[in-house]
Amino acid sequence: MTAANNIATHKVDKEKSMLHAQEWRSQRSHHQHYSVGLAQSEGEIEAAQRLRYHVFAEELGARLNVRTPGVDADIYDPYCEHLVVRDEQLGKLVGTYRILTPEAAKKVGNYYSDNEFDLTRLEHLRPGMVEIGRSCIHPDYRTGAVIALLWGKLAEFMLRNNYGYLIGCASIGMADGGHNAANLFVQQIDPNIAPLEYRVFPRNRLPFERLVTGQAADVPPLLKGYLRAGAWICGDPAWDPDFNTADLPLLLPMERLSPRYARHFLKA
Predict the structure, then answer these.
(1) Domain regions of the chain by residue span
(2) What is the DSSP string of the chain?
(3) What is the CATH number of domain 28-265?
(4) How many CB atoms lie within 10 A of CB 18?
(5) Which of the two ends of the chain, N or C, has the fewest CB atoms closer than 10 A to its terminal CB?
(6) Which of 216, 264, 208 lies closest to 237 in space, CA to CA?
(7) CA-CA distance, 80 to 77, in Å (whole number)?
(8) β-pairing, 81-87 with 29-31?
(9) Which residues contact 106 (CB under 8 A, 6 or more apart)?
């Protein structure tokens, strides 16, 4: 085969790959009366942002600086993919995740987590590191089915694009003054701590030592799921005063994804 033929073949293969990627982006998976996939319109993104506002501000009391009433949006949103679950019977959006790819993080300037933590030790992971955040589910749909659909599509997204690492924060409410968050961190850190080379450092550290009571901690289902999937806790929690949460930094190398979770997420 000539050099010209090689170039032409490579071009065709690249165009096919891009076409397949675009087709996957627009695909919706259907499970019972739910559909899950990446948001395809500005209207769908705004619906996800309205759900976020409802959960974070109205339900949990977060102080959000909003430009449009009832819409949680920030500088990262235009650069993110927005993973959404819809109840097709009722025609409403009921769950969402925000996904910031390494390419998009480079365009916006950093990851959202950079604002809360010093990520210096993860610098070498950035080319393959995807950040997830703003996870929320409508109060009427917190039975496990919606989060399973979101995680399944997220795992598919990671594998299709050959990304090797997921980062994000698990937020723990501090309505009790932070005692549960402190107890949780102390009780979960030993079995789940990241190796030293993956440690990060909070910019606004939660003084958990002063808040520990020794009571058994209530572990949020989302955090429990991350840890069971194989995620590491990468350091001390940060305090987010706007959301009034303790944020635990998490890192999940895809090669650590537990076989049970992988089979469950990728069976379809």
Answers:
(1) 28-265
(2) --HHHHHHHHHHHHHHHHHHHHHHHH--EEETTEEEEE--SHHHHHHHHHHHHIIIIIIT------SSTT----TTGGGSEEEEEEETTTTEEEEEEEEE-HHHHHHHSS-GGGGTEE-GGGGGGGGGEEEEEEEEE-GGGTTTHHHHHHHHHHHHHHHHTT--EEEEEEEEE-TTSSHHHHHHHHHHHHHHBPPGGG--EESSB--GGGT---PPP---HHHHHHHHHTPEE-SSPEEETTTTEEEEEEEEEGGGS-HHHHHHHT--
(3) 3.40.630.30
(4) 10
(5) N
(6) 208
(7) 5
(8) unpaired
(9) none
Question: CA geometry: angle at 268 spanning 97 and 169, to 5°?
Answer: 25
pLDDT by residue for the chain (268 residues), tens digit each?
Answer: 554 554 444 444 444 444 444 554 555 566 678 999 999 999 999 999 999 999 999 998 899 989 999 999 999 999 999 999 999 999 999 999 999 999 999 999 999 999 999 999 999 999 999 999 999 999 999 888 898 899 989 989 998 899 999 999 999 999 999 999 999 999 999 999 999 999 999 999 999 999 999 999 999 888 988 998 899 999 999 999 999 899 999 999 999 987 776 665 555 4
Both tokens of 153, joined, read 């599509």
